[in-house]
Amino acid sequence: MLPDKLCSFLRQHGYDGLHVEIDFIHLHPIDDKEIRAIANQRDRIIITKDNDFKKQYQLKGAPPKVLFIDLGNIRNSMLMGYFTDYLNEIITYFKQGHAFVTLAEEGVILPGNS
Hints:
The protein is an alpha/beta fold and 114 residues long. 47% of the residues lie in helices and 16% in strands. A 4-stranded mixed beta sheet has the order 1-2-3-4, sandwiched between helices. The chain is globular, with a radius of gyration of 13 Å.
């Protein structure tokens, strides 16, 4: 589970971050299909560590847009450091039309570039 601090960080940087367990508590339990539907309806980017979203994208492609966090189990402070370092690059790729972006230890990776 990604920390709600990430949503706060995104909001501080001008992005409307929502957290599934906080902002959609009325829908709990919420499954991946519902998350995808909400992301599609609201033109959202799903930020996840869940391999199911990666597999779904590989099988069916976009939409929705997915930022896959491939950093393993790290401290929240380290995760926030990665976002501080790479947020602009991530946003640039999505604005360029990329639908799947990975944030990994080595930086930002696009499909086919790993």
